[in-house]
Hints:
CATH class of the largest domain: Alpha Beta
Strand content: 25-35%
CATH superfamily of the largest domain: FAD/NAD(P)-binding domain
CATH topology of the largest domain: FAD/NAD(P)-binding domain
Mean pLDDT: 93
Distance between the termini: 33 Å
Shape: elongated
CATH architecture of the largest domain: 3-Layer(bba) Sandwich
Amino acid sequence: xxxxxxIVGQGLSGSFLSWKLIKAGxxxxxxxxxxxxxxxxIASGVINPVTGRRIVSTWMIDNxxxxxxxxxxxxxxxxxxxxxxxxxxxxxxxxxxxxxxFKDKIPVENNYLRCNExxxxxxxxxxxxxxxxxxxxxxxxxVSLLISEWRTQLIEKKVLLEEDFKSENLAxxxxxxxxxxxxxxxxxxxxxxxxxVIFCDGAKGAENPFFKLLPYAKNKGEAVIAEIDGLPRNNxxxxxxxxxxxxxxxxxxxxTYDWNFSDLNxxxxxxxxxxxxxxxxxxxxxxxxxxxxxxRPANLExxxxxxxxxxxxxxxxxxxxxxxxxxxxxxxxxxxxxxxLNNTPINPLADVQRFRKILSR
Length: 361
């Protein structure tokens, strides 16, 4: 069997990249074992244009936000599904100092920040003392629906290999000229020949033999899933933790950023924290029905890994999206596709060639 590209992983990165390449007329095989605990499948799906306690715009957001809206709308049209909806964040200030800091940022970040004018209505559902700011626009992505519907299409197209990828089964083949100079490199995996293999393997990338020297940073996230009858689902609510409309009329409540962990099991400490937050903040009754934990493909630079390996022209990567994957993936899947097909340059701040020295060891 011969294809143009083998894509390892069918999380958000692998789904977008395979979709883009197939739409461009390329032959693709996706290798994925359908693990239920990959970061993409239990992500909140929020695209938030501002970040952190400093309340500043996230990297490249003025480009990422409109592109994401167009990309998810187009992908959803192909899947006959609605993947993106606008759900602005209502930020409940925990202290008066944070309330003043938010207001001070409004003139600076006026594209995205404003004061909420409907606090009286919110008092019906929440306890709060220091006002509410609004981040607008924010988007909510149905990541689970995207991955499951695209997986169905990959199966129908007979281009999904449902198994764990084993690097020992990958052969890199150098094709040489009569003068024995390498002129081209291809790959073969268990009888599948391809021009290139692109790793979209998420947190597993930290153990990938070709890219394990990249500055990955292990990051565990947790969330609980709860029923909260009667809470309006037209916004995302934030008060330390985020309260996000999720599938089946449930709510996703999270998340943590644990940089020092020994396993990926849900912890009692986080569940207690989440329930205490709900008890003090939300006036409506709730019922916790699930608890999730996963490792994110984060990195120390907080910039994606995109492009081809400096020593192997047949080995590529689309990874390292961290907690901003929903906004970063569509844009950089498109950049990688343009590079593969037309040799269009990748943003140098994301191009994996910036690690040429360390990857060439």
